[in-house]
Amino acid sequence: MNKGLTKTFSSEYVHHVWRKNRRYWLITLVSLFSGCTVYTGLHYDQIYGFAEPQPRLVSKQDPAAQHYLDTVRPIIEKRCVACHACYDAPCQLKLSSAEGIDRGASKDQVYDGTRLLADKLTRMFVDAQTTAEWRDKAFYPVLNERAQTKEANLEAGVMARMLQLKQAHPLPTTPQLDADKWDFALDRDQQCPDIEQMTSYEKDHALWGMPYGLPAIPKPEHDILIDWLAKGAIMATMPEPNATDAKKIEHWEAFLNGDELKQQLTSRYLYEHLFLSSLYFDEPDTTPRYYRIVRSATPPGQAIEPIGTRRPFDDPKVKRVYYRLMPDRETIVDKTHMPYRLDAQRLENWQTWFIDSNYQVSALPGYHPDVASNPMRAFHDLPIDSRYRFLLDEAQNTIMNFIKGPVCRGQLALNVINDRFWVFFVDPDLMKSARLSQFINEQAVNLDLPAEKDTVVLPLSNWLNYSHAERRFLKAKSEFMNKVFQDGEHLTPNLIWDGDGVNQNASLTIIRHFDSASVMQGLVGKPPKTAWIIDYTLLERIHYLLTAGFDVYGNFGHQLLTRMYMDFLRMEGESNFLTLLPEESRSKALQSWYQGASKELNDYLDTGVGQFHQPTAIRYRTEDPKAELYDLLKQRLAKVLPDNYEVDSSQLTETSKALLKKLEVNISGDRATLFPELTFIMIEQTDPTATPQLFTLMRNSAHKNVSSLFDETDNRDTAKDNMTLIHGLVGSYPSAFWHLQESDLPRLVDTISAVESESGYRQLLDQYGIRRTAQDFWSFSDRLNQQYMQMRPIEGGLLDYNRIENR
């Protein structure tokens, strides 16, 4: 054979063998060098070239963009966004937008309750605008950023490798996953491998492909994603607003950016309360597009330049702030979705409350923290009646800002509230008082909040300062109330706002699910142990403490101080409710809410919230005044109490409804602790063509008191645990799924009545459960989300699967 041909053939053969087996050579080399990621990285650079961000976002007219929008993105939303959205996405990998996919992941955690200093900000679309900027912030790619070849895109891309790992190593077929090998805890250690670490990850955690701890996605969908990744993962960003929305944006931005000081102050107030909301325009028979209100350095008509500050009231460091409506480019997920409608009536209300009202603004407030963090200081020129009516108009949204905002994640953040309680509001007509406005303005110094400090080094000493200020405020408030409510004047059910006869925000139910929570309009479930009555100052401080002033990237001291201060606000809301009870019953009720409280807490309750001594004007007729008061308030609010959560509002037969209601009765006390926080139930109706009915079974965990930071287990009162069953889905983080036929209900009730142990609960799941290991998990998930969105097309969003139990 010709030597030249032999040489050519030999080199081509070697090259062919190298190309076909280069991954295995890499594994060998990595092993030889003890898993050195630097060495592995060098080889990726040598084989596929150096990594640099790729131009993946193309015009939506491009066929590749249309393929992404029509075929790829729906799969990512249904299969990946369920775990990878918002601040609690593992490894900060947010797959809810094209930009988030391209940004990639980080080894830093957003939720870190131990850090001594505030962390760097990594908010999507705020703290960096390009993928290259995210690389400078230590985010690493999950898509291949080296040579854009099919082989490189699959071999040098974390996402592709993770998907292929799951296909090659599917979940075990056992009902439960081995607890020694799988960790589903909220605060579990996260691996977060970059591409240089993937070979080691695949070797050590062969079963941990994507989706983690769930079945592999269906093979046809997997093939679509792999083909898309192999071709370079071309994407398109969300489309621009349509002509109708664009016109409305222009109209609303004109209102928000008026030049008068009154208008500028109003817009600042509106922004600081709506910056987390999903704003939408009311267009009948259309799926709304959602927007975020942002601060921009540029006026309407120009491209938005977001001003990224740590908190919404921080100094923007520009001469003039403009308030703009920016399209929300992320998939709507239930855990952060707080819809807020913008329509003609809303604009008219704002115009009436804030612009046409008779008051003067001589100068705009500054942004120094001690002013900006305290709305009583910053907005003292705005009429209190106007502010309060604005907050009440969408009270569910106001409260939901802290329920669904970043503060509300994890046990420590939520053990400040009871598991289920009702909320009422003081009638705003009683707040229209010059004397009350003067009182609030005089007390502004005592209403400073921990939000004025972005890094807290000594939380306990700071807490003492705020505690003293709160005591001074409560003493002054009691003196003021003793005069206003002298001899029981106004202390009737008419003290409570009735929603003006039309607004269903007049009452709320808040339910805690251990490490998450939900807020619903109306009085849901049986009468609870506690209730709050909220007035303007309390509602405003809740917002500025837990929403506007809470820094999810803040240090341990900041987050601890925020939690400790919320104790004051909870007790204030509870004490407001007690004012409507007979004077001799108030102390008894308070003691039942704070069993085993420390001497310090009892002293605070006596000297802080126990200084109001006026009698109620309600004539009670029973030995249970609290239950009687609940009935009176229900009568007061009868016109605005929604019934959509009632089991009777479902389409099941009357017999089936009666059987379902037995679940609340049959599960209580210590037996209730066997059931998870949130169980979503799908019941197929007897008529096979009828729509499946959805229900939520919620566990209410009783406590002796909720004033302790760290020993919640010791404060549990399991003998008083109970359940709440509602029609529809409530909660963003389901713990368990049940799927049954309507004809199964008699047997379900009998089975549940027999559950006395963990093994009994597992037998229940064997019959009706859709576990995280179920072969039909994804088909069930699709039906559940689809039906949920049909029931709640505006309020609903994709559910999160990070907290599904492994039982």
UniProtKB/TrEMBL annotation:
Q: Which residues cross the membrane?
A: 24-44
Keyword Membrane included in the entry's annotation: yes
Classify the source by domain of life.
Bacteria
Q: Which InterPro entries match?
A: Fatty_acid_cis-trans_isomerase
List the molecular function annotations (GO) for this entry. isomerase activity
Q: What UniProt keywords are attached to this protein's entry?
A: Isomerase, Membrane, Transmembrane, Transmembrane helix
Protein's name in the database: 9-hexadecenoic acid cis-trans isomerase
Q: Which organism is it from?
A: Corallincola holothuriorum
